[in-house]
């Protein structure tokens, strides 16, 4: 089994499907608890993805609770599949969330915040390697979004599974993570 993005995508989609609802919840909780150990809590603007249930993604609800408990500004995005652009909105008590045609939960509208205000971003991924490169769904949304952010933004991958040794087909434009957090480990790159 090779380690190209395509091969890793299919391997980890399969592994995720094998997790029970219960395991996913427990692992998501363990990941949220690990985040408390990271040196990020002096920051104010945090970008969080809302999970696509159909893709068995990490439940970030727990991370939202952590952040709101610490009075942080939480940003969630709306994705434009034509332009591959993400627009970020402040999550408040009044934010209405609705699934788009790809089953991604998104804010209907709200207070827009520019990318360059964001200080910490939690990045969804299917797999990652020991150098901090990730495999996403291949649409390039996050690469584009992160290229619009300040260079000192802290990028944190969240993964149910541990690191692969190496992703073979990494490109110039692929972003590198600063941390990746799994239920059992914190990787720092």
From TrEMBL:
Lineage: Bacteria, Pseudomonadati, Bacteroidota, Flavobacteriia, Flavobacteriales
UniProt-listed InterPro entries: FTHF_cligase (IPR002698), FTHF_cligase-like_sf (IPR024185), NagB/RpiA_transferase-like (IPR037171)
UniProt similarity note: Belongs to the 5-formyltetrahydrofolate cyclo-ligase family.
Residues spanning the membrane: none
Highest taxon above the source species: Bacteria
UniProt keyword terms in alphabetical order: ATP-binding, Magnesium, Metal-binding, Nucleotide-binding
Cofactor needs: Mg(2+)
Enzyme class: ligase
Catalysed reaction equations from the record: (6S)-5-formyl-5,6,7,8-tetrahydrofolate + ATP = (6R)-5,10-methenyltetrahydrofolate + ADP + phosphate
EC number per UniProt: 6.3.3.2
Residues spanning the signal sequence: none
Protein name as annotated: 5-formyltetrahydrofolate cyclo-ligase
Cross-referenced Pfam families: 5-FTHF_cyc-lig
Species assigned in the record: Flavobacterium palustre
